[in-house]
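Reopening this ticket.

The earlier resolution said the output was attached, but the attachment link was broken on my side. Pasting everything inline this time so it's all in one place.
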Amino acid sequence: MPSKDEIQSTLKNKYGINKNITQPLSKEDCERLLYLLSREDSAVKLVQSYASKNASLGSNNAAFGRARSQAEHKLEVLKAEYLELEKSVSSIEDAKLTLETRKVVLEEERKALELEVSKRKAVLEEERKALELEMAKRKAVLEEERKALELEMAKRKAALEEERKALELEVTNLTSSNQVLSSKVQTLTTQNDELTTANTQLKKENKDLKNIVDQIRLRLAKDTKELLKYEDSQIRKAVIKLFQWTLG
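Inline output:
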């Protein structure tokens, strides 16, 4: 005896009836259906028409299933995109709130900065005015100092001119004195030359005189020696004194 599955396979292969259609039937029902189809052509045509329609419906169902699957996938994608969009919107809202807060802070900082700039500008203006006043005073002082310096320079120049004239006069006097001294030096040089000549002559005369004195002493010594030969003591004493004086 063939099994139900084998009968279903026969129905599918011979008449195009899918197993999902015959699955709810019992084995006996499947056998009666197979028997009926083998005896009645009209039943075969009906079954074939039904199978064709079923195949068409199956194809449509498959296409619908694919479309549904695609739609479900697209829906999931859209849901994910929607969630991302919600997150982005939330982030944008948070960023917007942060920007609004930052804008308020920046506005307050701008106002504070403008106030600080205004105060600083006022201080700088006061400092500028004070500086201009100080510069004006300093300029006046410098002008007075310049005039005093020019006057001092004029006085100093006049004094230097007087000193220059005095120095020129002194130089002139020194030049004249130098000329007189040069003349005196020349005269002294001439006199020195004359003294040198006279000294040389005097040395020569002294030498000649010394020779004469030496000759006199020698002669006197000889004469004294002769006189000492006499016995008269008074004569001898006188001769000795004379000899000592001559030698002395």
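Reporter confirms the inline version is readable. Helices lie at 4-15, 19-22, 27-39, 41-227, 233-247. Residues 205-248 form one domain.
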